[in-house]
Amino acid sequence: MNNLIWFRNDLRVADNSNVSKACQGLSVMAVYFFDPRHYEVYDFGFKKTEKYRARFLIDSVTELKANLLKLNITLLVFHDRPENVMPNLVKEQEIKTIYLQKEWTRDENKVLDAVISKIPASIHIEEGYEQFLFHPDDIPYSGIENIPQVFTQFRKKCEKYSEVRSIMKTPSLMPKNNLRGTDTIIPSLKELGLSDFEIDTRTAFPFKGGEEQALKRVHEYFWETKKLGYYKKTRNGLLGKDYSSKLSPWLANGSISPRTVYWEIIRFEKEIQKNNSTYWLIFELIWRDYFKYVSLKHGSKLFKIGGILNKEYLWNNSTEAKRRWISGDTTEPFVNANMKEIAATGWMSNRGRQNVASFWAKELQQDWRIGAAYFESLLLDYDVHSNWGNWMYNSGVGNDPRDRKFNIQSQAERYDGQGKFQNLWLQERLF
Ligand SMILES: Cc1cc2nc3c(=O)[nH]c(=O)nc-3n(C[C@H](O)[C@H](O)[C@H](O)COP(=O)(O)OP(=O)(O)OC[C@H]3O[C@@H](n4cnc5c(N)ncnc54)[C@H](O)[C@@H]3O)c2cc1C
């Protein structure tokens, strides 16, 4: 029985039921697609994926390939649309079952439907939810439609009635497969139509993509520096690599599972210390889950101007406001510093994201979806649910029961009182 693992946003071998299940067959192979559509200009005039996340992805796929090879599984990598490649691939390799992570957003559905329409109906498609902390089968709600509109209600009920599943065992070595055809090559940034770049020395995210790199970061943040024990005090920081866990880019493309992070926190609580900070990282992982459930419940409303509340605000669409916001040339130095950071690195802190989003949508009253699309293009940790869900939340069309607007100047005073962050990004660079 030949099984194929189709990797999308689950780029890991460990704690991945798609890998575990596929390895129960006699022969297993794997595939990943750099889909050209992901590197094209998209809605609102931005490339769907810019160079920062693309490089992170290239590194992630490179490590995935190496880790799979340790199990004798070959990862084929194509720079092509899945629906162009899959029909021949499944035929040549006599595939019986395709295993993949279940996604539910529009673009992912379209691609899967296009593949299914072109391959024999006899091929079994097995999809598993690999991206959650609380598995959809384990949450205390009888149907997705009953997911509450307010996070706190969701969190409290899950904390009381749900359990995080234990980590799955990594499968043992497979027999060497005799894959027909030759090895494939991971495309370069240039081949994806993107320019090469040097990492900005000011970056707060000086890390590389990949499953090993994610574990390395957990090791460093939890065990070496024990920063996890102070997380709640530092999490609103703006400077350096250690004010927060920085795990989001690996979580977003699935190089690490939220369960792995959760069980490491529990181990830390047992072996080092249990406090508000260790709990707060779990709290944030539940936010991550919540936005996924909001997206499951509301589907394409996530991308509609009225959001999940069907709100009718008067939104502007000014090219000049967009230019100024993106280039860090607004009336607010704190917004400008954050916008320069994301443009130079693909990273922005949570505090920064909240402020620049509030400024764009609430202060300037510009179409919030433009801001979300810009973030989608640039962010190293772009995740469809977290990005569009947080943007809705900060724009008054989502799950914030208080519908707050940030006072940017008092935020800057509170979180960057000495102006260190603003100086870092707003000073003229001599080199
Ligand atoms: C406008 C806006 C857009 C955002 N877009 C994204 C996005 O595309 N991808 C993304 O992963 N996060 C997004 N966030 C959430 C948050 O800013 C980042 O997850 C966080 O800054 C990542 O840094 P960290 O890993 O050090 O987080 P930590 O503070 O260490 O938190 C640990 C983990 O919890 C999760 N988490 C923390 N805060 C949130 C949150 N508000 N919503 C959802 N999950 C959270 C992340 O997976 C994060 O890695 C967005 C927030 C805003 C306000």
Could you please describe the fold and organization of this structure?
With 431 residues, the protein is α/β, with parallel strands linked by helices. The chain contains 17 helices and five strands. The chain has three domains: 130 residues, HUPs (Rossmann fold, 3-Layer(aba) Sandwich), CATH 3.40.50; 124 residues, Serine Threonine Protein Phosphatase 5, Tetratricopeptide repeat, CATH 1.25.40.80; 123 residues, DNA Cyclobutane Dipyrimidine Photolyase, subunit A, domain 3. The chain has a five-stranded parallel sheet with strand order 3-2-1-4-5. Strand 2, helix 2 and strand 3 form a beta-alpha-beta unit. Helix 10 crosses helix 15 and helix 13 packs across helix 15. The longest helix has 23 residues. Flavin-adenine dinucleotide binds next to helix 8, helix 10, helix 13 and helix 15. It holds the Pfam family FAD_binding_7. Keywords: Chromophore, FAD, Flavoprotein, Lyase. May have a photoreceptor function. This is Cryptochrome DASH.
List the SSEs and their pairings.
Blueprint (H helix, E strand, L loop, with lengths): L1 E6 L9 H6 L4 E7 L17 H19 L5 E4 L3 H11 L2 E7 L4 H11 L7 E5 L22 H11 L49 H14 L6 H4 L13 H6 L4 H14 L4 H23 L20 H9 L5 H13 L4 H14 L4 H11 L5 H12 L12 H8 L4 H7 L5
Parallel strand pairs: 1-2, 1-4, 2-3, 4-5
Helix pairs in contact: 3-4, 9-10, 10-15, 12-13, 12-17, 13-15, 14-15
Bound molecules: flavin-adenine dinucleotide.
